Each structure stands twice: as C-alpha cells, then as structure tokens.
Amino acid sequence: MTKYPARQHALNVKKHLKTKIKDLSDYALFLSGSFQESYKYSDTAKVFRQERYFYYLTGCNVPSSHVFYDLNKEELILFLPEIDYDDVMWSGMPLSLEEAQKKFDVDKVLYERDIDNYLVKYDINLTTDINQSNKKYSNFLKQSDKRLFYALDESRLIKDDYEISLMRKAAQITDNSHLAVMSALPIETNETHIHAEFVYHSIRQGSKHQAYDPICCAGPNCGTLHYVKNDDSMEGRSSVLIDAGAEWENYCADVTRCFPISGVWTPEHIDIYNAVLDMQSQTMAMIKPGASWDEIHLKAHKVLIDNFLHLGIFKGDKDEIFKSHVSTAFFPHGLGHLLGLDTHDVGGYPNYNDADPKLRYLRLRRDLQQGMVVTDEPGIYFSPYLIELAMKQPEQAKFIQTDVVEKYLPIGGVRIEDDILVTADGYDNLTGITSDPDEVAAIVQKGRSRDPSHFHNVV
Ligand SMILES: [Mn+2]
C-alpha cells in the first residue's frame, strides 16, 4: 500500500452509517478541510493543521479542499481550491489535478468550481459543521448529524495497517527525541532546554509539528498535570518529567518519561518511579481484545494503593481505601486514552460527569478491540492543592500519613506513558524508549560524562 487508504476509510464510514440509517439512497457526505488562517490584523499565517475527519477521508493536506462521497456509487471525489495566480509568485504552483490524482487514493480530483454539480445530486449532504470553508454551500448541507459523527468516530477507532505504520514512525521519532533529552543534561539547566532539545530532534527527523504542546517540568512542577510553562530553572531539583510526542503525517505519538537530573535516583524518586512502573506493567498485561478499560484503569488504582501501603503513604484497609477514592488525590487522571489522528483521539466516549471520581477523567470508556491504539500512562503526583482537598475530607484524610507524604513533595510527580496497539491476542508496545530505571539512569550518566562542547548548542 503506497497511498493513504482514503477509499477504504470512506467504505468504513459507510458501513457504520448504515447501522444508523437503513436507507442511504438520499444521502451523500461532504466534508471540508481547514483553510489557511492569518492572525488578526496581520498577514502572518497561523500554523496549518488539517481538519482530522477530512484527512481521514482523503489523506490530503491541501488547505481549503473539500471531499464529496457518493454513498450509493461509492465514489470519492476530492475538490482542490481554484488556482490563485496572484499567490503563485509567493507560494509556487499548487498541486495539479493530475498530480493530486496520482498522490491521493480518490476516484476523481476536480476543482472547487464543480462542487455544485455534485451537491445537487442528493437530498441530504451530511457534513460535520458549517464553517468559513463551506458556508457558501450551506443551503445544500446538513450539519452536525450525530449519526455522521458516530460513523466517523467508529471508523477512526480501529487503525488499519497503513495508519499503524504512520504511528510506528511517529513513535520512533519520539523515542529518539526522548533519548536525546535524557542524554543532554550538560546543556539542560532550565525546563526550556528540555523542550528545545525534544523539538529540535523531532524536526531533524522530519516531524515538523508536535502532536501537542510538550510538558517539560522539573521538581515540584511535575505535580501539575498539564504544565506547559516549561521555563523554570532545574537548579536544586532532582526530578524531570517530560511528556512529548512527535507527529508523523498527522498521526500522533504521546510518550512520558521521567529521569533523575543527576543520573542517580534519589530514594524518594525511585520509590515513586517503581510504584508507577508497577501500575503500568500490571495494567499493560491486561490489555487484549474484550478487556474492559474501566477495569484496567481501576486496577491501576489498586496497584497504587498496594504500593502506598508498602511505602507508608497510606495506612488502613486496602478495600476501604479503594472505596474512599483517596487515591484520586495522587492519581487524578485516567490511565489512558485513544491515540491516532488526534492525541486524545475520537471514539472514547468519556463521561466527565461520572458519579465515580475515579472514572470521571477516563477518556476511554469501552472495551478494547483489536486495532485500537491506547496510551498506558499511570502517574503518581504530589500536588499540594489536591492533597489539601483530600485532607479536608475526614473519610479520605484518615488514610493519609502526612509526615510521609511530605518527603515526596520535592519530586512533584512521576508519569510513565507508552503507546499500545491492541492486537488479536494481546498488545504491541509502539514505544521503544526504555523505562527501565537502571537503563534510564545509565543514559543520563553517559550524557553527563560529556563536555557541553560535545553538544550542538550555541548558548
Ligand atoms: Mn497521553
């Protein structure tokens, strides 16, 4: 397979749509991609990010394109924008129809001027939403049909071999970039340097965009889940947490690693690191088709409680501790989420109003299926804010040994995150960068043995 399998994706969407709309004879699909936006009062272009549903049906990154899918004829037609000859001087010639036909797995490529001829064919042209790209066709379009989103999301849920190969490439670039970060402590004295090193090595490998804004933190900052300031000094701190993933042809990686700045784990840091590793390895072992992600997530809480009892952070009966939800003060987020064209990919159907606080932030609420890619990312955090909230609730506070908690505050938190493909009989870990604590320490030490002049830096 040399082309992004857009026609198969369109067939997938039709299959799922058919379960919701028995007779599709009056229906077609019309989706629009993103357009190139500028900043307000400026002619500077914003970073272009293709609309993901459109990309799934085309594999096309050309701004201001549209796609029409004739559900009856199973014919997929890509519409490119008209050539703007005033822009050719600045941007060069755009892709011709012939070039686009060769490049994309679609039945036809036409210019935008032909769109009307297609939209009149069917009574109902389903679209995701009416926006600046497609509002001129709004009379022909039916937006935000839940059945369309269902069909698109169910299709994107299961990755085919082509998509998996793109995700493996994103994962590989991400592995190398994490290795580079762990290896460059002599030139990393501020969180910004961690961020810079990761992005530099991703771009060098051809990944121009990150899947999401990297989270690079040291010391107590590691306790803030989505810390993106990335600008604090690392001096006097012992721990680093970096959550960063490259993107490859719009497919994401999402990986977190933690390491000791000195190359030697402090006793507190390794206590927590091993507990998180235990949460990850016990949950990963449960991954296979048919397994309940809710149960796997709750298993992570049970492993946390076992470890906290062993470390003396909790005291009391483990079943009572589990029922009290006190573990959410230290592991507040979900064990993992779907991954694909989006970092938090579609199809997980989270319930942010769940009465159970352990499940409230779990972004994947369904059984696993072969072809899903999920993150397995347990974490343990020492957030003074969350601990204080728990201490105000007597039914939780009674299990927490505050004097023991105190000694862990300086490390902030630990998260270990890998990207996991669900296979026919288990799983395949797409993430290759080691999380073994001895190997991680050895990588940091090896990097530390080098003089700063060894590294590619100007300041
Ligand atoms: Mn993640």
UniProtKB/TrEMBL annotation:
It comes from the Eukaryota. Pfam families: AMP_N (PF05195), Peptidase_M24 (PF00557). GO terms for biological process: proteolysis. Residues 4-131 form the Aminopeptidase P N-terminal domain. Keywords: Hydrolase, Manganese, Metal-binding. Belongs to the peptidase M24B family. This is Aminopeptidase P N-terminal domain-containing protein.
